[in-house]
């Protein structure tokens, strides 16, 4: 954290000068300790920061979300058609978030010289165990039904430097995916993210409800997890369904100044809940094909296919 260290050194020097006395030899009190405390409290913690959005609208429980983003047309559609294409989420608006949680693993930072760095994840006893991190964006308010605790950070020791990019998986590694959830260490002991019928985990849970007067109460439910699983030991699944997210923005990636954006609107691109609720539990090709493709996963095989459009690097 070069910027923070440099700032602290400068403030310490200023504090020393202030305490050394004035022209009359009197020692004056300094406010530097308070300034230092403020800087330390406001500086971002070391790690990979995530933020959840729907287009340009921040995702927040208890608040109607429109999904607004910059208006653009192709020149062939009417203004109203452009509004629908640009603003709506699953063809309706507004929505209200119900749940958004995901497991992230296999974090890799891509160096400018082509090498790769795998930072050591911190086991904090709650959100990450050293291999897997749980990101939780719901806070039990509004239509959200989980707990009030949230987490949007992968805690890892990082220097303040520019990387070529970042890579991570959305999913629980196979060696942890078929354990007894009740006996697992946190964050793999969350009952709401365990798939008992498949002896595995939900890698990503995204749910919202329509507050659009024309489709009020219709829901969208997306649960990503391994598919084609055998229901008895030794447990195995024929479709892994783990998304590998590779982000290499043109200007590089600095974890101290940039965050990873998860776009719910992009995840459900291709869904339409105007006529009724839609759900995907990683088994139905009719409803799962679009969000799987948006994550860069081939639904039929569970392997990587194509380019994902759900995650990006944000400068905000």
UniProtKB/TrEMBL annotation:
Domain Copper-binding protein MbnP-like: 48-281
Pfam family, one: MbnP
Transmembrane spans: none
NCBIfam families reported in the protein's UniProt record: MbnP_like_WxW (TIGR04052)
Keyword Transport carried by entry: no
N-terminal signal peptide: 1-20
Protein name: Metallo-mystery pair system four-Cys motif protein
Organism for this UniProt entry: Leptospira inadai serovar Lyme
Key words of the record: Signal
InterPro entries: MbnP-like, MbnP-like_dom
């Amino acid at each position: 954290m070069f910027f923070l260290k440099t700032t602290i050194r400068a403030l310490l020097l200023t504090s020393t000068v202030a305490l050394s006395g004035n022209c009359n030899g009197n020692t004056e009190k300094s406010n530097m300790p308070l300034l230092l405390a403020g800087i330390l409290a406001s500086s971002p913690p070391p790690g990979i920061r995530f933020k959840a959005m729907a287009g340009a609208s921040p995702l927040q429980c208890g608040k109607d979300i429109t999904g607004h983003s910059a208006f653009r047309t192709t020149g062939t559609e009417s203004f109203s058609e452009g509004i629908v294409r640009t603003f709506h989420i699953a063809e309706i608006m507004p929505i209200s978030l119900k749940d958004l949680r995901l497991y992230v693993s296999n974090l890799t930072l891509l160096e400018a010289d082509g090498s790769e760095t795998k930072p050591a994840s911190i086991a904090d006893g709650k959100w990450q165990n050293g291999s897997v991190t749980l990101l939780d964006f719901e806070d039990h308010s509004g239509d959200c039904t989980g707990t009030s605790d949230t987490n949007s950070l992968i805690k890892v020791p990082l220097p303040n430097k520019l990387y070529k990019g970042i890579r991570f998986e959305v999913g629980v590694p196979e060696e942890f995916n078929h354990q007894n959830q009740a006996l697992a260490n946190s964050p793999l002991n969350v009952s709401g993210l365990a798939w008992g019928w498949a002896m595995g985990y939900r890698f990503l849970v995204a749910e919202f409800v329509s507050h659009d007067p024309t489709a009020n109460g219709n829901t969208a439910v997306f649960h990503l997890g391994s598919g084609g699983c055998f229901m008895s030991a030794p447990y195995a699944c024929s479709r892994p369904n783990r998304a590998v997210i590779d982000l290499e923005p043109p200007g590089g990636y600095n974890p101290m100044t940039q965050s990873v954006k998860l776009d719910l609107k992009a995840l459900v691109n291709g869904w339409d809940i105007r006529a009724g609720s839609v759900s995907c539990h990683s088994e139905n090709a009719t409803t799962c094909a679009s969000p799987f493709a948006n994550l860069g996963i081939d639904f039929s095989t569970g392997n990587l296919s194509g380019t994902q459009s759900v995650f990006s690097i944000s400068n905000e």
